[in-house]
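Data availability (excerpt). All sequences and predicted token strings are deposited with the supplementary files. A representative entry, Sugar ABC transporter substrate-binding protein, is shown inline so that the format can be inspected without opening the archive.
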Amino acid sequence: MKKILCLVVAVLLAVAVFAGCSGSTEPAGSEDASAQSSASAETVGSESSGAASAAGNYPRGNGDDTLKIGFACMDMSNTFHATVAKYFEQECANRGIECMVLDDKFDGTTATENCQLICDSDCDVYVSVMGFMVGDTLSDICKEAGVLAIGMDQPIPDFPFFGADNVTAGYSAGEALAEAAIEKWGENPTIDLYIGLESLAGAEINDARMHEGMLEGIRSKVEVPDEIYVQCDVTNNDSQVAMRWVEDTINAHPEAEHILIGGFVDDSGQGAEAVIEKLGYQDKALIGTVDGSTLAINNFKNPDTAWVCSAALLPEMYGYYMLETLEPYLKGETDELPDSWNVPPVVITKDDYEQVLTDSIIYDDYQVG
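Structure token line:
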């Protein structure tokens, strides 16, 4: 049986996902953007928006010549979401689109007020991550105002979804982690323990990223029986919580010589890396995550790190990939808007992260790490 370790959660927990005026050029792989958009309903899995409208029946805007988008950042104090907001505003400026950026401050009341303000400000589009907290209310406000809502990384009922492709991101990170295990421990290595540092508060997203994604990616290369899988609920994706889970789990399995650790976000990977270093387990453990943030990059610079890969969600590119599909629809150049489309993730490792990120992020002001 799979061993499930859970913390008692007393309040509603949120899900962090998951967590760029400069010139721009086409990003690597951009010729596949339209194909990814049309196929996204299949690849995104559980992030379905449940849109009631048929594709193409979403609102197109207020009729003005200049497009205006209201972007409600989940929390500007969060590095990932602040980065999305910064480059979303920059991409709008590059395209001549007016952008109104507000901070939801990770608060449902503030998110509701910001949504109403955006709708009252003649915006054509409202973008928010707060669908997991007040999605029904946000949906009702936008319907009443005739404004197109985009649920970013978290769906808003009856409107399209845009964001991370959690299944693909998790699966590619899992494959890379398994390949690192084969390289380190030889062909067909016996994995003694798999620790899943997960975010159970967001069950659907967690299942897509960590089960359909990462665990299946690992199992495509090496065997991971259910009985060696320890699922840990990392409250609020906190690195300190991850540290406690990893240390307690490893201490409960002193016989484990080959340990794989998968993290929902890089914060969990940071906690895991600290424990592996403390225990001197660099030869016994390997870590893979989803996020691709500076936390992963800074650890990749350590030649002795056990953290070998991360699927980069590219917050810098959210604006580009959203607007590549959304702008033509708003201008009437395309007839349909898909019910969901995604930012294509890329896997970075400690050997190639600089080149991969440089090729994937199109903005002149971007610097790796």
